[in-house]
Amino acid sequence: MEPETTRNIVSLIGVLTLALMVWFITRRAMKNRESMMEQNAPKVAGEDELGGAARNPEQFNEPDEDALDEMAKLLGEDDEESDLEA
What we know:
It is a single chain. By secondary structure, the protein is mainly α. The protein has a domain at 1-41. It has helices at residues 3-39, 65-75, 77-85. The longest helix has 37 residues, at 3-39. The model has no long low-confidence stretch (mean pLDDT 85).
């Protein structure tokens, strides 16, 4: 076989190998990008799982004075007491 023919065959194999590598890397990069976008997408209400448990639920068993005063204001009990005093 002539050296020119051998060089042409090797060049063709090299170009095909390069094209195949570029195609494979591009396909892999697109797949990785889609995966990353899916993992880092914003959460839609109802799709994400939240625990919802209080860290210290015992703190809600006995209300403090501030909480009782706030509840009295919300229920309008302060207005009744001030009417009775007057």
